[in-house]
Amino acid sequence: MSDYKVTCYENGKAIGMVKYTDNLDHWDGSNWTCGSPGRHLGIGRTKDGRYYLCHGTQWQGERDHAEIVSEEEARETVLHHNPDVYEEIFNEAIPEL
Q: Residues near 41 by Cβ (< 8 Å), separated by ≥ 6?
């Protein structure tokens, strides 16, 4: 699946293809999921450095896709779904508050 590409959108407009990822999923005891049955979530960076969220689905009639997000939204999403990859994605430790 490492070469699988999905359509990426920005402001509702398709802008290109990005690498599929589900690196924000977690093991719920029986499945890899982002917290919703049959759905997956990942984060990546475009070649020009922008962040995208990749939305995967196992539901018939739905398609995997990605969307460009702000750095703030990217950080918030990683902290919420899988803080273990924060340092890998942002090249810094999780901020201490």
A: 22, 24, 25, 34, 53, 54, 55, 56, 77, 81
d(CA 90, CA 82): 13
Q: What is the DSSP string of 2-62?
A: TT-EEEEEETTEEEEEEE---TT-EE-SSSEESSSTTEEEEEEE-TTS-EEEEEEE-STT-
Q: How confident is the model at residue 1 (pLDDT cuts 50, 70, 90)?
A: low
pLDDT of 35 over the 80 cut: no
pTM: 0.88
